[in-house]
Amino acid sequence: EYLGVQSIANVGGAVRLVSCKTGYGLSSMLQKAQDLAEDMDCDVYVVGAANAGKSTLINFILDKNVQKTGAGRNTKKRAGNQNAKKGAVTTSPLPGTTLKFIQVDLGNGQKLYDTPGLLVPGTLTQLLTPAELKMVVPKKEVEPITLRIASGKCVQVGGLARIEVIGDSKPFLFTFFVSNDIKLHPTDTSRADELIAKHVGGLITPPLAPGPERMEQIGEFESHDIEIDGTGWKEAAADITLRGLGWVAVTGAGVAKVRVSVPKGIGISVRPPLMPFDIWEAAASHTGGKAVRKGGKTKSGKRRKGVGRR
């Protein structure tokens, strides 16, 4: 148990970092699931929130099964989705794309079932338009950005959330793990409302234009005050999760007093850091209206290109 979170390893489970795009970690994860299913004499079910990537995972397994058996797949293009292969599971940033249980034969009498996504209450995606959903749901590897925030300063996560440091807190580092299409904008807390009113839907997205009208549709915001005990500058102390948007890792020494503002009813939580050592590789400078990651060398020794969010 850590910060009140109990490990599922206590009941024979495991947490795995995987990529359905590259296949990283998927074979060992699937083997673990099959071993557990064999021990418990049951099938495997893929269960989770809408847009978590369940159908993308199923498609990867289907492709692996085709390669293993050598069976060809009908590649006739589907109406309305020219890039999809017939037999594949439809994927979309829109929740509710999977409408029924989909069965995959794993062999040895085991079946794997893809289930419809759970519509989790308090998820930000339920407030967004299809075009905004495409921005919020990552399509490629997320490039985290670390920004230093002092008391009286804040960062706008598009127009959908605000992270600010309050009270007598010393400056802390905040590493944002959100879609690369979401614009991050550091500013003075005193100017944040004016900034949103003037630039939402343009300089600040999502939401998209017409920004003021969309903000009115999204509704009233509410603030949550959090205190996080820092563990030093080498690793993050905790993550602040923004349900349906991403998370922010908090790093520093002392106590961080943080105010998180999100649309009313949207859930936030504090958890142990998922990626505590990504702080300095994602360090950024701020100039004008954009956050820009500093150039440098990667672990492989190659020069890292400067990237950021305009």
Question: What does the secondary structure layout of this molecule look like, with pairings?
Answer:
Blueprint lengths: L25 H15 L3 E3 L7 H16 L7 E2 L2 E5 L16 E6 L2 E5 L15 H7 L8 E5 L3 E5 L3 E5 L6 E7 L5 E5 H11 L11 H8 L2 E9 L8 E5 L3 E6 L3 E9 L4 E4 L12 E4 L2 E4 L2 E2 L5 E2 L3 E2 L1
Parallel strand pairs: 1-5
Antiparallel strand pairs: 2-3, 4-5, 6-9, 7-8, 7-10, 8-14, 9-13, 11-14, 12-13, 12-15, 16-17, 17-20, 18-19
What amount of the residues lies in strands? 25-35%
Rough outline: globular
Q: Please write the string of helix (H) and strand (E) elements.
A: HEHEEEEHEEEEEHHEEEEEEEEEE
Task: For the largest sheet, list the strands in their spatial order.
Answer: 6-9-13-12-15
Based on helices, strands and strand pairing, what is the structural class?
Answer: alpha+beta
Q: For the report, how would you describe the main beta sheet?
A: 5 strands, antiparallel
